[in-house]
Amino acid sequence: MVKELSEEEEIKRNITRVMATLYQRGLVSAIGGNVSARFPGKEEFWITPSGIFKGNLRSEDLVKVDLDGNVLEGSVKPSIEWPVHATIYKLRSDVNAVIHAHNPITTGLAMGGIPPKMITIEAVVFLRKVPVINFALPGTDKLAEEVAKAVKETTVKALVLQNHGVIGLGRNLVEAESIVEIMEEVSWMTLACLIAGRKELPLISEENIKLAKKIYGF
Ligand SMILES: [Zn+2]
Q1: In terms of DSSP H, where are the helices of the chain?
Q2: How many domains are contained in the chain?
Q3: Which of 74, 87, 94, 145 has the fewest beta carbons closer than 10 A?
């Protein structure tokens, strides 16, 4: 029982750390973005709250909900994006952490028709294919439905939400965090490359992708 409690506290501490990092890195605004995580196999998850400053959340600001959005623990409202998180956990037993951020460069480039491209080995290994989801209002079932269509494909780990932001899916929070950060890293590199005058991005070759698959086993 004591072990269970400390693991629960660790998940909550990690969520608040990730949220603060996203805020410090300029990937979410003061009340934007949301982060959730669950124990593998559980049909409930911890998620950040709605309408509270995200740069300095405490464990007690988090809410535990089930996959239908019923609040199981916590005294504040869960993020309005809980349906997106619940949808992903319902469809993907391999996913135990979901991060939604507002990566400005990734989102801006996607609006310009350039989603994250496979220009680094990290992009190849962590991002793979990045679907761009048609715009739907935040917090609506429509947005959750659009996300569901994309994440049914089990290789999908990263999404861009048109005119809105990004979603990273991970086996744990660090993996989801890496995915969100790599999307922005790749997007900055892409922007720099285009500003430098390249018309075509130099992608990692198919041959090197095959080799990377062998070496890193993904
Ligand atoms: Zn958002």
Answers
A1: 2-24, 82-91, 104-111, 121-122, 141-151, 173-195, 206-216
A2: 1
A3: 94
